[in-house]
Amino acid sequence: MLQEESDLALIIAQIVQKLKGSNLYAQLERQAWASLQRPEIKLESLKEDIKEFFKISGWEKKLQNAVYSELSVFPLPSHPAAPPEHLKEPLVYMRKAQGSWEKRILKSLNSMCTELSIPLARKRPVGEQKELLNKWNEMGTDEPDLSLFRPVYAPKDFLEVLINLRNPNYENGDSHSFRTHLGLIQVPLKVKDIPELKEFFVELGLTAGQLGIDDSTQVPPELFENEHVRIGQKVLSEQDSAAAQQYIRQGSPTALRAELWALILNISSQPEDILYYEQLKTNVIQHDLLVDSLIYKDVKLTASNDDYYFVFEDYLYQVLLCFSRDTSVLGHFAYNSASPPKSYIRGKLGLEEYAVFYPPNGVIPFHGFSMYVAPLCFLYHEPSKLYQIFREMYVRFFFRLHSISSHPSGIVSLCLLFETLLQTYLPQLFYHLREIGAQPLRISFKWMVRAFSGYLATDQLLLLWDRILGYNSLEILAVLAAAVFAFRAVNLMEVTSLAAAEAVLADLSTLKVMPLLQIFLFATVT
Amino acid sequence: MSRLSVPCHVKGTVALQVGDVRTSQGRPGVLVIDVTFPSVAPFELQEIMFKNYYTAFLTIRVRQHTSTHTPAKWVTCLRDYCLMPDPHSEEGAQEYVSLFKHQSPSMTFPKWLSHPVPCEQPAPLLEGLPDPSRVSSEVQQMWALTEMIRASHTSTRIGRFDVDGCYDLNLLSYT
């Protein structure tokens, strides 16, 4: 067997293995059995007839969507000799850095426990369970005393860790070289330059229509918008994930967005999914976690204070509390450089049969985490659907924004991409900001870590997240960050302090995302 | 087809330098690794497997025995095989690599270690889709691999995070 064919067979075997455990497999089996009743299914050509039936009834399309989803999410199988940690992160020094960072988080959480004398987890007494169940839909009205809790970390703490990342095999000279004096990120990851970005984001070019530009009131809808909406409706009726992903690169009409995102993420609300969500809710009712207080605090500090999102406060508690009980999220650690924290049942320290993950989903929220969920509340109002969409967005995209890895969509690559774009195409601005002690990444980091949630107006944010889904990449966050600096370059050249630079860039709520991206990528003279 | 790994002795790297001058500042970009097979009879090599550590290009020369009468010859079977597409960045820097017999160009099979010819980039992109029934029969052959995958991570949802209903935890563990 040639190498390419054995690679392909391995990928297929892996996908088959994954799908065999899914609801879809059970459904397909049931459908195949039921189809035996049909007159067109003949015994002598059973296999072909059933395959034809699947094609006509739309089940083949569902299978295609599931396969496409697996291909989009899971990395290709690597070399047979590569151990599991290599799949998580191939570079040893990055794995070590992630390990050290995690240890710091664990220590921080443990000291919070000891200082406040609160256990990590406890079973709620029955009375408390009843009380919580009664006010499940209005947890926002609760005003628990959270003053003693502090977020485990904030984005700026994480940035310091990234700044100190070093490749032990990389040396740029004995003395401080020119390179080390420029940006903050010092690891030589491969990032795209503008010609490569233009090719990657070709659908955002000047000759293609865009929602976010060509649907503004001055532009007659016959030129682009009407046709684009019509195509969107067709994509939805065909229920084709791959087509939807291609379509959404030019933006999604507001009315179709919820369905399109669900199609791309391969989310359909089956009864099993609603039951699963209810089970998670039961888990929340039964066990109280320290992490819950962190979630409460985060929502109160961020989303509740935001003009756009405060109305969704109750939804946010429901989704995030359930999220932390969801053990299916543990699956994403196979391709995430991070690992879930471990603990032991009280009194059974060191006994492996009593080892558990904490929280059950292995994800410790940080300051601003709830902002990943907030924009989704505009699209989905049914809690279990909202939950499924958020979970899928997290295990596909958001986890990369707060773990140390060499992945092109990982936060380290995004930071380097941002800095490189700025240095290369706006060198004067970059130099000026550095000179006044305002390293650009210190300002833009928080935007990228939150995928711009809470910084852009919601309609603009959703147009941006359309493209994240369409290109299956977070690189657009770095490009937008650079485009914002380019847009405000004139003002930034005049400031003389970090505080003044931050003031120029404090309010992004009036920005129109698509024109900025288009100008930066396709219309700037380089 | 049974394959055995051949015990080998990997010597330390030797830097290639021009002239006799050894300077501490000069850092040669070419290192040579000698691999010997001390106690093995001549064999047919199928695959070389290794983990890269920041090597950009690889050349392999082999001393081949053709027959008992002619002395063994050194031949180049791989020249400047690219392991890192951009040597100044991390791509491919720490990857696991397998080199197969068929990847080195040869005039006659199985004398794969024949003439020193420029090496072409291996494995051209697959044009079009493969034949499904052939692929599915190969999938069945790969079932041993799926067992390995199954062992490394579960694909079914477990759901329970507690141990017998108990989830009382004090502190996180650092190990």
UniProtKB/TrEMBL annotation, chain A:
Matches recorded under Gene3D superfamilies: Ypt/Rab-GAP domain of gyp1p, domain 3
A matching Pfam family: RabGAP-TBC
Protein name: TBC1 domain family member 19 isoform X1
Span of domain Rab-GAP TBC: 251-472
PANTHER family: TBC1 DOMAIN FAMILY MEMBER 19
SUPFAM superfamilies, A to Z: Ypt/Rab-GAP domain of gyp1p
Membrane spanning stretches: none
Protein species of origin: Tursiops truncatus
InterPro entries: Rab-GAP-TBC_dom (IPR000195), Rab-GAP_TBC_sf (IPR035969), TBC1D19 (IPR042507)
TrEMBL record, chain B:
Example of a GO cellular component annotation carried by this entry: nucleoplasm
Domain of life: Eukaryota
InterPro entries referenced in this protein's UniProt entry, alphabetically: Nicolin-1
PANTHER family, per database record: NICOLIN 1, NICOLIN-1
Name recorded for this polypeptide: Nicolin-1 isoform X2
Organism this protein belongs to: Lipotes vexillifer (Yangtze river dolphin)
Native organism taxonomy: Eukaryota, Metazoa, Chordata, Craniata, Vertebrata
Gene that encodes the chain: NICN1
